[in-house]
Design brief:
InterPro entries: GDSL, GDSL_Rv0518-like, SGNH_hydro_sf. One of its GO terms (molecular function) is hydrolase activity, acting on ester bonds. This is Lipase. The chain is of the alpha+beta class and about 450 residues long. The chain folds into two domains: about 40-45 and about 60-205; about 215-440, SGNH hydrolase (Rossmann fold), CATH 3.40.50. The chain has ten helices and 27 strands. The strands form eight sheets. A six-stranded antiparallel sheet has the order 10-7-13-4-16-17, with no helix packed on it. Strand 23 (about 335-340), helix 7 and strand 24 form a beta-alpha-beta unit. Helix 4 (about 275-285) runs parallel beside helix 6.
Length: about 450
């Protein structure tokens, strides 16, 4: 028999302790009203090679360093727990310590900036009752509950220390939020030291935050690409369209989790695995999710022939329909309501870049044919017509100027707000409106 390595032994011991902690938690009494719900998410992606079209914005390895990230949650509650992911890792990652705290929103304390936390808000995070833990390759790690009361739409600073070499193979690339990498264990530091400090807008390892609410709460998951991920939303401003939707739904005790990945595709791997491969993890397995909004397909249609996929052929319309129908079937099998979203206009997309052939007339014809099927094909329980909400009435293949970020593909902050306003909340959740015999079309303007 082969002898186990020290790393494998440590990982197995951590796993055993975690199981014991989980068993104790399961045996502990709980009120019937309290429940866990997903309140924030950053879908895991594999870190790509250095020769990819875009930089990864993370080092290949972290060693004796602390990562501090800020995340704005949607629903608040009395306790929270964090989820760290090593989904695409091939080696175990050791967590030496972790904390959560309330960030200083301005980021400035006594002349220092970048990652400051409010005095008296620091809470230790444990895993199976221990402050150290190991994330096994291909696995995620859920923390113990932390008794920290947080309000809806407030921010949480999550810090974790990596005491030994940790190859970064799992991350979320476009966090639209500044995070920090600093030397040594600074998980408890109110202000991060400037020596050895760097920033990143990617999210290493942190994949979710869950909240315990005093009454059972619901969540809406949004699975999408860079438009959902917030590719051109203002940095550090929580101005993605799911963020604005979260502001509308929070008063109704409904959370919104963003399962968008920039470059995501429905049928093929891109800057993350295809939607069918990650749907179970990023949507169906998230606690409290009762509805899912699906906004995918523009990269399936537009990547072929570009620098991303120079030799690829366009998918067929039938293949796209089949992919969407499979997502709907999987959602329905878990009792979720599936809401489709039309694809927004993109004529003239990404000018003066290596992707300036992202738009073609035949690609737009496929987008419009797919949109007609999404609207009228009957596959979804309801439809949000983002195409109608954002298009220029005089040039319907183009995004309206006031909604355009400037790259003619991604909406800016005002466009993101318009998208969130285009969602009919009553059609989004089954408890707010009785089921209809045919899908409802949610629009802000005429078809």
């Amino acid at each position: 028999m082969k002898s186990l390595s020290a790393a494998s032994v440590a990982a197995l011991l951590t796993f055993t302790v975690a199981l014991q902690g989980a068993a104790a938690a399961a045996a502990a009494p709980a009120t019937a009203a309290q429940a866990w719900v997903a309140t924030w998410q950053a879908s895991p992606q594999p870190v790509w090679r250095a020769d990819f079209l875009f930089p990864s914005n993370v080092p290949a390895t972290l060693n004796d360093q602390t990562v501090r990230q800020v995340a704005r949650i949607s629903l608040g509650g009395s306790r929270l727990r964090i989820v760290l992911s090593n989904a695409y890792g091939t080696e175990p990652i050791r967590i030496g310590k972790a904390t959560v705290a309330q960030p200083v929103e301005s980021g400035v304390v006594e002349g220092q900036s970048n990652g400051a936390i409010a005095a008296g808000s620091l809470h230790a995070v444990t895993f199976g009752g221990q402050e150290t833990a190991t994330i096994l390759p291909g696995a995620s790690l859920v923390s113990d509950p932390v008794a920290m009361k947080v309000a809806a739409l407030s921010s949480v600073a999550v810090s974790f220390y990596l005491p030994q070499a940790a190859p970064l193979q799992t991350f979320h690339w476009d966090g639209r939020q500044t995070g920090w990498l600093v030397a040594g264990d600074q998980t408890g530091a109110p202000v991060l030291r400037t020596t050895g400090r760097s920033s990143t807008t990617a999210r290493p390892l942190l994949s979710a935050i869950q909240i315990e609410t005093e009454q059972p709460a619901r969540a809406v998951a949004v699975i999408g690409d860079s438009i959902t991920d917030g590719a051109t939303a203002s940095l550090d401003s929580n101005s993605r369209w799911p963020d604005f939707l979260a502001e509308r739904l929070a008063p109704h005790d409904v959370a919104v989790i963003n399962a968008g990945i920039s470059g995501a595709r429905l049928l093929s791997d891109g800057m993350g695995v295809n939607a069918l491969a990650r749907f179970d993890r990023d949507v169906l397995a998230q606690p409290g999710v009762q509805s899912v909004i699906v906004m995918l397909g523009i990269n399936d249609i537009s990547w072929p022939g570009t620098a991303f996929a120079p030799e690829a052929a366009l998918p067929s319309l039938d293949d796209m329909k089949a992919g969407f129908q499979q997502l709907v079937e999987q959602a329905h099998s878990r009792g979720l309501r599936a809401v489709g979203a039309t694809l927004t206009p993109f004529k003239g997309a990404l000018p003066a870049t290596s992707l300036d052939n992202y738009y073609r007339a035949d690609k737009d014809a496929m987008r419009q044919a797919l949109n007609e099927w999404i609207r009228h094909g009957g596959a979804f329980d309801a439809v949000i017509d983002f195409d109608a909400a954002l298009r220029d009435p005089g040039q319907p293949s183009r995004m309206g100027q006031r909604f355009d970020s400037g790259d003619h593909l991604h909406p800016g902050d005002e466009g993101n707000r318009a998208m969130a306003e285009a969602v009919d909340l009553d059609a989004l959740l089954p408890a707010l409106r009785a089921s209809q015999s045919r899908p409802a079309t949610l629009t802000t303007s005429e078809d």
